[in-house]
Amino acid sequence: IGFTPHIIPKDPGVNALARELKNIRNKRILFPRSASAPKDSIDALRAGGAIVTPVILYTTTPIAAGKKVFENILKDTAKDTACIIFMSPSGVGGFAKNLTRNILKGHVLETRALCIGPTTATAAKYVVFRHITIAQPSTLEGIIKALPISLLHRS
Prior knowledge:
The chain has 155 residues and is α/β, with parallel strands linked by helices.
């Protein structure tokens, strides 16, 4: 966007950023977020003394119209799919909500879930994916680096 960040946390996520920020006591922080984002990030910033104003800017809602089409694609490809890449917990949730329980119990949950970070991996565990790889670092580059590992460990 044309600016250099003042700090890049060693670990992914706002919680890591909150731990690394110094001198935030009584500083005002505007925190744009999704309606489904966990509140722990706000709590971590407040624990450091910041005055946090959360602003919900968007929601994520799975589409229902494509459910049958999506299931048909999975029926045709699930046995040959090496991994499913998830870039957000809401992506995992939307994926799961567009499937019936029978489809989830089939090959899909045996397919490796390649997740961008630990929060997304937790969502994948909740959906009951059995094989999960977490990108290191939690970036697009981490996903690309983890892809060959996921392909080698195909279920």
